[in-house]
Amino acid sequence: MSLVLSAILLASAAQCTPEHAAMGHCKMPAAAKPKSAKPKPAARPTPAAKAPARPAERSAPPSRATAPVDPSCPPEHAAMGHCTPKASAPAAQQAAPPAAAAPAAAAASDPDCPPEHAAMGHCTSKAVAPAAAPAAMATGGTALPAGNAPAPAAPEANYADRVWGRDGMAPARATLRSEHGGMSFSQLMLNLAEVQFRDGRDGYRWDGEFWYGGDINRLTIKSEGEGTFREDAEGEVQALYSRAVGPYFNLQAGVRQDFRRGPDRTYATVGFEGLAPYWFDVEGALFLSDRGDVLGRLEGYYDQRMTQRLVLQPRVELNLSAQDVPSSNIGSGVTDAEAGLRLRYEIRREFAPYVGVSWERRFGDTARYSRAAGEGTGGFSLVAGIRAWF
Question: Helix, strand or coil for residue 39?
Answer without folding.
Answer: coil
